[in-house]
Design a protein that fits this description.
three-stranded antiparallel beta sheet, single chain
C-alpha cells in the first residue's frame, strides 16, 4: 500500500520523485508539517513512497495551511518584534512589557496585573475575569446607596453622591434629572458629560465645561465657548427661567445702553451706547459723554455720534484743537479751541444758557 510522502527544499526544482524517496518524511493523513527554521522561501514536494505519483490510480486530497506569524520575520504591528515572538502581535509594544508574566503583553492584556493567559472575559466588557471586581450592591438601581466608590455606576446609573461614585469618564450630575432615566426626580445620575446640572441649571456651564450658543446658565464670559459671551437674564428667550444667563454671540450679549454694550470687539454705531471711549465706536464716530437722555438712555450714558465733539454743547470737553468750536459754542479752554477768527471768552456761559463757569467762543472783532 502506498503512502503520501514529502520533503522540504529552498528551491522549486531541487527535488524530484527519486530524491524525495531517499530524503523524505512521512505525511500520511491530518499531520501538521513544520517548515525548516530560518528565513525562506521554502517549497514542499509531495509524492508517494515509491517515488511515483498517481501510479496506483488513486488520488489524494492535500490541504496545506500555515500561520503567517510563524513565517520568517513578519511584524504585523511594526513594533520591531516579529509576530512569532511578539506577546501582542496586533498592538505595538516594542518593550514587550508583561507585568503579570502570563505571556500576554500589558498593552493587550485585559488583566495586566493578574495572570490570565487565556484572556477569559465572560461578560465581554473588556475587563478579564481574573481581575474584574464583582460588586455586591446594598441597594436597588436609583437607591441612595446604589452607586459607591467600591461599586461605581455606569453612564445613566444612580443615585450618586459624588464623581467617586461613577466610573471613569462620567461625573455625578445633580439637579433633579432622575425622572429622565426612570428614577425619582431627585436621583442624581452618573453621566458621560462635563455639565454638572441639567441644561439651564445653575451648574451647567463652567470654565472647564464652557457652553455653546443658546446654552446656560452661565456666570461669566469664561463659561462660554470662544466667540460667545454670557448674556444676563435672557433665559425666557431660550426656554429657560427669566433669570437664567445664556451664552450668545459676543456682540449680542448686552442690551443697548448697558455699560458693556460697546467694546473694541463690538463697536457701536451712531446713536448707540454705552461707550467708554471712541475706540468703542465705529470708524468716524466719537464717544460723547453724558448725552444718553437725547438718545433714549439714562442721562449718564455715553453715546457714539457722528461728531468730533466728545461731550454735549457746554460740556467740559466740547471744544478742542482737533474739533474747534464755532461762535456761541463752548466750553473752550483757549483761543486755539475756537474756529479761526474767534476768541475763547471766559465765564460767559449764562449768556448762552449754560453754567457761569463755561467759556464760549465769540467773535470779538469791532
Amino acid at each position: 500500500m502506498y503512502s503520501l510522502i514529502g520533503a522540504w527544499s529552498t528551491h522549486p526544482t531541487a527535488l524530484t520523485a527519486s530524491t524525495v524517496v531517499g530524503n523524505s518524511f512521512f505525511v500520511g493523513a491530518n499531520n501538521t508539517l513544520t517548515a525548516p527554521a530560518g528565513a525562506g522561501p521554502f517549497y514542499l514536494f509531495l509524492g508517494e513512497n515509491d517515488g511515483v505519483f498517481r501510479d496506483n490510480g488513486a488520488g489524494y486530497d492535500v490541504t496545506v495551511s500555515w500561520d503567517a506569524r510563524s513565517c520568517g520575520n513578519v511584524d504585523g504591528d511594526n513594533d520591531g518584534v516579529p509576530d512569532r515572538d511578539d506577546n501582542c502581535p496586533n498592538t505595538p509594544n516594542p518593550g514587550q512589557e508583561d507585568t503579570d508574566g502570563d505571556a500576554v503583553g500589558d498593552v493587550c492584556d485585559n488583566c495586566p496585573y493578574d495572570v490570565n493567559p487565556a484572556q477569559d472575559d465572560a461578560d465581554e466588557d473588556g475587563v478579564g475575569d481574573a481581575c474584574e471586581v464583582v460588586c455586591e450592591r446594598t441597594d436597588e438601581p436609583g437607591g441612595w446607596h446604589y452607586c459607591s466608590p467600591a461599586c461605581p455606576c455606569d453612564d445613566g446609573g444612580g443615585d450618586c453622591d459624588s464623581d467617586d461614585d461613577c466610573v471613569e469618564g462620567t461625573i455625578c450630575v445633580k439637579g433633579g434629572i432622575g425622572a429622565s432615566f426612570g428614577y425619582d426626580p431627585d436621583v442624581d445620575i452618573c453621566l458621560a458629560t462635563c455639565h454638572r446640572s441639567p441644561l439651564g441649571g445653575s451648574r451647567y456651564c463652567g470654565p472647564d465645561c464652557p457652553c455653546d450658543d443658546g446654552e446656560g446658565d452661565c456666570d461669566g464670559d469664561d463659561e462660554c465657548a470662544p466667540g460667545l459671551a454670557c448674556a444676563k437674564n435672557v433665559g425666557t428667550a431660550y426656554g429657560f427661567e427669566s433669570d437664567t444667563d445664556v451664552c450668545v454671540p459676543l456682540c449680542d450679549a448686552h442690551d443697548p445702553g448697558d455699560s458693556d454694550y460697546c467694546s473694541e470687539t463690538c463697536p457701536c454705531g451712531d446713536g448707540e451706547g454705552d461707550c467708554d471711549n471712541s475706540d468703542e465706536c465705529a470708524t468716524g464716530l466719537t464717544c460723547v459723554k453724558d448725552v444718553g437722555a437725547d438718545h433714549g438712555f439714562d442721562s449718564e450714558t455715553d453715546v457714539c455720534l457722528a461728531t468730533c465733539h466728545p461731550s454735549a454743547p457746554g460740556g467740559f470737553h466740547y471744544c478742542s484743537a482737533d474739533c474747534p468750536c464755532e461762535a456761541g459754542e463752548g466750553d473752550c479752554d483757549s483761543d486755539d479751541e475756537c474756529a479761526l477768527g474767534l476768541t475763547c471768552a471766559t465765564d460767559v456761559g449764562p449768556e448762552y444758557g449754560w453754567d457761569s463757569d463755561v467759556d464760549v467762543c465769540q467773535d470779538e472783532s469791532p
